[in-house]
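Hello forum,

I keep getting stuck at the same step: I have a sequence, I want structure tokens, and every attempt I make locally crashes halfway through. Rather than fight my setup again tonight, could one of you with a working pipeline run this one for me? It's a single chain of 111 residues.
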Amino acid sequence: MSDIKSKAQGLDPNVQPRDVVEMVNKTGNIYESITVISKRARQISTDLKWEIQRKLEEFAVSSDTIEEIQENKEQIEISKFYERLPNTAIIATNEFLNDEIQYRIVERENQ
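Reply #2:
Ran it on my machine without issues. Output:
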């Protein structure tokens, strides 16, 4: 997972215009390109969510009363780090345009 974080840290978190023709040239169809990007973005999102939950579980404190709220600076820093990461669609688009995603298109059989 640290591979995704290292790639994402160098990316601009702002949305940038992309060359649609370049995206079409990769698959031959813009809709297929967007499908590949969206599926990869979903994978990245799931992986990051799992990772942050695992890290935050280390700081979880079970108490019987709701009024006891404790702030943990390490927990806040971890959350802020993940909030600063670019959107998963931006990461996936960058991977797609840099040919870092392996995909295959399954053709439908005519019945």
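Residues 16-61+71-97 form one domain. If your local run keeps crashing, start a new thread with the error log.
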